[in-house]
Design goal:
By secondary structure, this protein is of the alpha/beta class. The chain has two domains: 2-189, 3-Layer(aba) Sandwich (Rossmann fold), CATH 3.40.50; 194-247 and 273-355, N-(1-d-carboxylethyl)-l-norvaline Dehydrogenase, domain 2 (Orthogonal Bundle), CATH 1.10.1040.10. It has 16 helices and 14 strands. The longest helix is centred in the middle third of the chain and has 20 residues, at 224-243. It is globular.
C-alpha cells in the first residue's frame, strides 16, 4: 500500500521505517525540508528495536505535501496536535476522494482537519480517524536514526464522519492490524492517553524538571502520589465516556502500569529500562505541555463541562498549568467553545459526528 507519512518527530520516523520494512511504499514529508537533508542523502532510516539495528530504505522523501499524498491510500500524521491545522492547510488542496487520514493520537484533530479540508473548493470525500496513542513507543537517537521500544497491540480508533468508519478502518488495518473500532471521533479523542499520563507527570515533577538537566518522569517521577492523581484523572475520563454513552473497553491507564491489557501491552518496565525517556523537558515548550495539557487536557475539561460530568482533577491540573504558562488554558483553541460546538445538544453533536458536515 502507498502510505504518506507526514511529520518529522519520533512517531513519524518510526512509522516510515517500520511500514517500509513491512513492504509498504512510504513517502515521508515534513515541513522542515532542511531537516530531511541527511535522510535524502542516505535514502534510509536506521531502525533500532529488539531485532537489532539495520538500515531501512524509504521509497521517497517528498519535497512537497502534494507529492507525498498523491495516490496514497493512507495518510499518516503522527505529529503533535499543535501542527495539525498547518498540515491540514498544506494537504487540503491535494486530497482525493477515498483517502484516509489517520492521526495517532488526534486530540479531536480529526474534526479540526476535516473542517479545514471541507472548506476547500474540491471538498474531497475523505475520512479522518484518530486513536489513543502512537503505534510505537519510540525515540529518535539522531537525525537519521530511531529506536522503537515497543509496538502497540491495541489501537482503539474513532472515525469522522463515523458513517465512513468501516471503509476507513479497513484501510488503516492494512498498515496497523492492531486497530479496532471505538465509534466516532469524540470517542477516539477520549481514548487519548497523553492528556491523562503527561500533565500529572510534568506538573508534579516541575521542580526536578527545572532543577536537573535530565529527568525521567516515567522512572523516578512516577511515585505513588503521582499515580494516585493519574488514577483519579483517568477515572474522570472514563466517567465522561460513560456519561456520553460510549461503551467499554475504556482502556484505563492503570492497565499500562499493572497488566498487559493496555494499548502497548505490558510496556511500562520496557519504557523505563530503555533510558530513552530520560530527557530535558521545558515546561514552556515541550509537547507534554503545549499539546497534551494546553490542548488535550483543555479539550477534556471542555467536554466534561459541556456534558455536566464532574472533572475537578482535570480542572485543577489545567489551572496549575495555566499558572505556569501565564494564561487561561480553559479558553484554549481546542475546546468545544472555540470549535463552535458547545451550543449543540447531545443529539446534534452525535449527528454531526456520524454524518459530518460541510460549511
Amino acid at each position: 500500500m502507498r502510505i504518506a507519512v507526514l511529520g518529522g518527530g519520533h512517531g513519524a520516523y518510526a512509522a516510515a521505517a517500520d511500514l517500509s520494512e513491512r513492504g509498504h511504499e512510504v513517502r515521508l514529508w515534513r515541513r522542515d525540508a532542511v531537516a530531511l537533508g541527511g535522510l535524502r542523502e542516505s535514502g534510509a532510516i536506521t531502525l533500532i528495536d529488539a531485532a537489532g539495528t539495520r538500515s531501512v530504505r524509504i521509497a521517497k522523501f517528498a519535497e512537497h505535501p502534494g507529492e507525498a499524498i498523491d495516490g496514497a491510500a493512507l495518510i499518516l500524521i503522527p505529529g503533535p496536535a499543535t501542527a495539525q491545522e498547518d498540515i491540514a492547510r498544506a494537504i487540503a488542496p491535494h486530497l482525493a476522494d477515498g483517502q484516509v487520514v489517520f492521526l495517532p493520537p488526534g486530540t479531536f484533530g480529526s474534526y479540526v482537519m476535516a473542517s479545514i479540508a471541507a472548506a476547500t473548493a474540491a471538498r474531497p470525500r475523505v475520512a479522518f480517524a484518530e486513536t489513543g496513542t502512537l503505534p510505537y513507543l519510540a525515540r529518535k537517537r539522531g537525525p537519521t536514526e530511531v529506536a522503537i521500544t515497543i509496538r502497540a497491540v491495541r489501537l482503539p480508533t474513532g472515525v469522522y464522519p463515523a458513517a465512513r468508519a468501516a471503509e476507513a478502518l479497513a484501510v488503516i488495518r492494512g498498515a496497523y492490524p492492531a486497530v479496532q473500532p471505538c465509534g466516532d471521533a469524540l470517542s477516539g479523542a477520549l481514548m487519548n492517553a497523553g492528556p491523562i499520563i503527561h500533565p500529572p507527570l510534568i506538573l508534579m515533577n516541575a521542580a526536578p524538571l527545572e532543577a536537573f538537566e535530565r529527568w525521567d518522569i516515567h522512572n523516578e517521577g512516577t511515585q505513588p502520589s503521582v499515580r494516585a492523581v493519574t488514577d483519579r484523572l483517568d477515572a474522570e475520563r472514563v466517567a465522561l465516556r460513560e456519561a456520553l454513552g460510549y461503551p467499554a473497553p475504556h482502556f484505563p491507564l492503570a492497565d499500562h502500569y499493572t497488566s498487559d491489557r493496555w494499548m502497548y501491552g505490558d510496556a511500562h518496565k520496557k519504557l523505563v529500562d530503555s533510558g530513552d525517556w530520560r530527557e530535558k523537558i521545558d515546561l514552556h515548550a515541550h509537547r507534554y505541555m503545549t499539546e497534551d495539557t494546553a490542548l488535550g487536557l483543555a479539550f477534556l475539561v471542555s467536554v466534561a463541562r459541556w456534558a455536566g460530568s464532574p472533572a475537578p482533577i482535570a480542572e485543577g491540573l489545567l489551572a496549575i498549568a495555566g499558572a505556569i504558562l501565564g494564561r487561561d488554558l480553559a479558553q484554549g483553541p481546542r475546546t468545544l467553545e472555540a470549535l463552535g460546538l458547545a451550543p449543540l445538544d447531545r443529539a446534534g453533536l452525535k449527528r454531526l459526528l456520524a454524518e459530518g458536515r460541510l460549511p
